[in-house]
Amino acid sequence: MEFQDQAGFEALARLLDIARRDTGQSRRVADFLLAWHNAEENGGWDPTGLWNVDTNIAEDMLTVMRLVQSSRRYPGDLGFEREISSIWRAWRGGKPAPEPH
Fold first, then answer.
1. Fewer CB within 10 Å, N- or C-terminus of the chain?
2. Measured between alpha carbons, how far is 22 from 38 in angstroms, rounded to an integer?
3. Is 34 within a domain?
């Protein structure tokens, strides 16, 4: 694993933890992660969310965007299907998470 990928996975782990909480920042992080999972079904992500979260959270989001770009994979393909499904249930309702697109 390259250092950039390692940093991306570490940032992703922190964001997943934040998205499981019930705060305004958590909602913005969940929106970001769920848009990556399936933007069509979950709504797009508003990049102005970057200025509505703490600086360290915004930096983690940017790091994860680099991971998304370099890996060209969905979160489930990187081993995070269970976590994304949990976040989807918490923020989008109790039905099963849609398949990634």
1. N
2. 21
3. yes
